[in-house]
Amino acid sequence: MACRSKLTPVLRRVATPSLKKSVAAAHPAVYATRCISSTAPRQLQASGTRGAKFTTDSYPEIKRDERFAQLTKEHVDYFKSLLGNDSAIVDGVTGEMAKDDLQPFNLDWMRKYQGHCKLVLKPGSTEEVSKILKYCNDNKLAVVPQGGNTGLVGGSVPVFDEIVVSTSRMKQIRFFDEVSGILVADAGVVLEVADQFLAEKGYIFPLDLGAKGSCQIGGNVSTNAGGLRLLRYGSLHGTVLGIEAVLPDGTILNDLSKLRKDNTGYDLKQLFIGAEGTIGMITAISIHCPQRSKAVNVAFLGVESYEKMQQAFREAKTQLGEILSAFELMDSQSLGLYYKAKDAESALEGEHPFYCLIETSGSNSDHDSEKLEAFLEDIMSKEIVADGVVAQDETQLRSLWNSREGISEASGHWGGVYKYDVSIPLKDMYQLVEDVRKRMEDAGLKGETDDYPVVDVVGYGHMGDSNLHLNVAVRRYDKKVEEALEPYVYEWINSKNGSISAEHGLGLAKKKYIGYSRNETTVGLMKQIKNLYDPNGIMNPYKYI
Ligand code: FAD
Ligand code: 2HG
Ligand code: ZN
Question: 128 C-alpha vs ligand 3 centroid, how far in Å?
Fold first, then answer.
């Protein structure tokens, strides 16, 4: 399929005489419909197609913690009596459950981590979560909280036989205030569903990411997901106003504040934001949602060097100011993977080493168009940007965004992918991709044929947040590749004072490497907090803490 020929009318080229009337003026309702094109959330395809290994085979050094009990019929009978609903339990302990029924809960989205869980529980209320955790704690049964299972660091699936407690049946929107924009909802509400609900009220969820059709807001908060518009709406540490969580001993922590300002003592909810299910289970959140912008423009630009990408970003901040809502970087290799996997074509003619997707959103389309037009003309005339197009309607806007959001999935298309999501000061950010690419070539691991495990080394991400996604697309997971990448990548990041995880968290994938980003004192305090909340260690064991 040729992407370009499908777009009608043809994408407007930047800095041509036709750049007179703004896209937003012509299509004032673009943003209002941006995320509500489908009524049912789109389920993501798991990446890769080949058979997945068990984590215990890939990492035999991880041993089952003997403190944890083995599941028995008696345990299962208790959960059945508690949940009283067959659809709330997937029982592979006493039931004749097919492996296929358990596999979606055992296998992660990348098909890289697979556990041996035999029991999945789907509570329908906070009280049920409380009873489940209390029973597990009393009986030393280990637990993995699971939302949409789209996490990218192996944190959402068990390693051994931990019980998966899924929030998939907890999906009520509990409260929304149309004046303040404050939403209170169950942890299991799918992100796209929450956003569709808000769109109808003129609001937007302050987080958007490629997995929105599958991930859940409890999972988003538990990973402190960043996403495509952090630049505009900030981190969940700022927008989440309160949480309801269940501690391992069954205590319900009700801190569902609807206040933007509350300076009374320790802010305990912050500990759960990004805790990755290690200290308790989030059952609901309260979040401040901004007004949805009426006018949205998306420009897609080809850039000749990383130096020029930085200049374009600087100019975008200066000239677009408060209407800038996303500034995303893609190298030609990353988009190349997307186009190949999707059999699609670039929106621009000719190839450029780098591309950026710039989104503006505001309340006054004339004002926004004027600003964007002036900005694009300026950066073209200064030769900061080589070529570009601006979306003229919702279909084009969606298509440009799809090419950015689809890279994550496309990079696993050849069989697997090693993913690193890193924060590095902007000036050094892209050097990591070049160094890793060279390292793979020098080691004879990267090539065109099946003899080589590595297909390509690509970089893309949220330039506006100094957050790079380094993806090493492979034909198969291979220890030689892993050894060439780790700890090399982490040492590299450490040498630039970066962070080994900007947004996906540590999970199992980066468990050994926390020391590259946090010092001993900090890790020591984290361990004390873990022991305070979860003295029996039942919450998401074998993961980062
Ligand atoms: P899961 O994957 O089910 O769980 C993630 C972690 O949270 C696990 O450790 C789990 O134990 C824990 N957890 C889940 N629910 C709860 C709960 N209720 N209480 C306590 N712990 C819980 N991330 C970004 O930050 N930015 C992006 O742009 C982005 N894009 C993505 C695009 C794609 C295509 C994919 C597949 C993933 C992307 N991610 C991104 C990864 C991101 O972390 C997840 O998509 C999302 O935030 C996780 O939500 P989930 O419901 O799937 O959680
Ligand atoms: C994105 O920004 C996500 O697309 C996923 O954070 C990145 O898959 C990845 O490495
Ligand atoms: Zn990201």
Answer: 33
358's enclosing H/E stretch is: strand 354-362
Nearest CA to ligand 1 atom 33: 211
> Is the overall model pTM greater than 0.70, yes or no?
yes
CA dihedral 309, 5, 448, 108 (to 10 degrees): 80
| pLDDT given at position 49 | 37
CATH number at residue 432: 3.30.70.2740
Do 262 and 237 lie in one domain? The reply is yes
Could you say which of 263, 288, 313 is where a domain stops? 288
Q: Give the CATH number of the domain where residue 242 resides.
A: 3.30.465.10
Whether residue 55 has its Cβ less than 6 Å from ligand 1: no
What pLDDT is recorded for position 13?
74
DSSP assignments along 214-266, one per residue: T-BHHHHHHHT---TTHHHH--HHHHEEEEEEE-TTS-EEEE----S---SS-
Q: Whose CA is nearest to atom 7 of ligand 2?
A: 408
Q: pLDDT per residue over 80-134, tens digit each?
A: 999 987 789 999 998 766 678 999 999 999 999 999 999 999 999 999 999 999 9
Domain that holds residue 108: 42-166
In the chain, % of residues over pLDDT 70: 90
Count structural domains, the chain. 4
CATH of the domain at 78: 3.30.43.10
Residue 100 confidence (pLDDT): 84
Q: What pLDDT, on the 0 to 100 scale, is given for residue 28?
A: 30
pLDDT of residue 242: 98
Return d(Cα 491, Cα 482) in angstroms, integer.
14
Cα 211 from chain centre: 7
Measured by CA distance, the residue closest to atom 5 of ligand 2 is 408
What is the CA(154)–ligand 3 centre distance, in A? 16
Q: Ligand 1 within 6 A of 152 CB?
A: yes
pLDDT tens, position by position, 5-24:
333 345 677 654 333 233 22
